[in-house]
Design a protein that fits this description.
The protein is an alpha/beta fold. Helix content is 37%, strand content 22%. The strands form two sheets. Strands 3-2-1-4-7-6-8-5 form an eight-stranded mixed beta sheet, sandwiched between helices. The chain has a five-stranded parallel beta sheet with strand order 11-10-9-12-13, with helices on both faces. Helix 8 packs parallel to helix 10. This is Glycosyltransferase family 2 protein.
């Protein structure tokens, strides 16, 4: 039977969790799928687990991608996928039995939506990381296409192993790009920049297991600076369409780190007219309480302190600034 859904699961030295991840896909209530296991130069032990699984279940296709990197492994899966829909899975994680069915139903019933994720259950295997926990709480807190559009420059809006999308997206706009940037975030921003509609189911359909070996912890391509560089590329395109004062912007945050990161925007042609700060002691910055009425400038908030973004949004809303028209959060 031709598969409706192609589940792409890249793996690299994942012998401790690979079987569990595979089993969670094979135990799905939705059955018209293929599971593409992409071996990306793993040890013999991981490869043997995958080979045995492929021998035991006809849903599974084992592929080898010799070029290192998860982007290359993902692209190997995309090139070989036969389904109308693409689902992503990580070797560390566990899919809820209803994940594929619920995401498939959602896209079938919502033809205007191209891409759907879900909430996740955070499962730490190391000492509790408050930053990761805050990120999960944040990413689980919004679901609509409108919210995703407005929050896309804060952080990755959909956790990658929850994604489920129409194959036309990568046929039109490409798959993963390999470089010194977070490939999953870049792909989502690229799709959004082309007008893709993304949503998220308000259910925890994946256990997101956090190990010390997770790439987001160990690879410099997932550093905060790499994220800001990626944001800068796509914010320029967004600004052209949405900022009435493009390329002119004001940066909320006048500290050293914020100025360094705002330089990424300048490199892509944005013109920083000035800075806004909560302290009156910054001689080259506007004191935040002295902002003009809406319609005079466009603000990009780049403050990353915990909770600062929500306070800035609340303050600007009180001043009748409209998010997406008068300001955007980027941190």
């Amino acid at each position: 039977m031709h598969p409706e859904v192609s589940v792409i699961l890249p793996f690299f030295n994942a012998e401790l969790s690979l079987q569990r991840a595979i089993d969670s896909v094979l135990q799905q209530s939705f059955t018209t799928f293929e599971l593409l296991l992409i071996n990306n130069n793993s040890t013999v032990k991981s490869e043997e687990i995958a080979k045995q699984a492929a021998q035991n279940d006809s849903h599974i296709v084992l592929l080898n991608e010799k070029t290192p990197g998860v982007a290359n492994a993902m692209n190997c899966g995309l090139k070989n996928a036969r389904g109308r829909f693409i689902s992503r899975m990580d070797a560390d994680d566990v899919a809820h039995p209803e994940k594929l069915q619920k995401q498939y139903n959602y896209l079938e019933n919502n033809p205007s939506v191209d891409f759907v994720g879900s909430e996740v259950e955070y499962v730490p295997h190391i000492e509790e990381n408050k930053g990761f926990r805050r990120f999960v709480d944040w990413v689980n807190s919004f679901h609509t296409p409108e919210e995703i559009k407005l929050k896309q420059f804060i952080e990755i809006p959909v956790i990658n192993p929850t994604i489920f999308f129409r194959r036309q997206l990568f046929e039109k706009y490409g798959g993963c790009r390999d470089g010194n940037f977070p490939e999953d975030y870049e792909m989502q921003l690229r799709y959004l920049s082309h007008g893709a509609i993304m949503a998220k189911l308000p259910e925890k359909l994946l256990e997101w297991h956090d190990y010390s070996t997770r790439l987001t912890r160990t690879d410099k391509r997932y550093s905060t600076e790499a994220f800001f560089q990626t944001k800068a590329v796509y914010f320029k395109q967004w600004s052209k369409k949405n900022n009435p004062f493009h390329p002119n912007i004001w940066i909320w945050g006048a500290g050293r780190k914020t100025r360094q990161r705002s330089a990424f925007l300048q490199e892509h042609g944005l013109n920083i007219e000035g800075y806004i700060d909560i302290k009156k002691t910054k001689p080259d910055a506007i004191f935040y309480k002295e902002l003009p009425q809406p319609g005079k400038l466009f603000i990009v908030s780049m403050v990353t302190n915990t909770g600062a973004g929500e306070k800035i949004r609340e303050f600007l809303h009180q001043r009748n600034y409209c998010e997406g028209k008068d300001f955007i959060l980027m941190g």
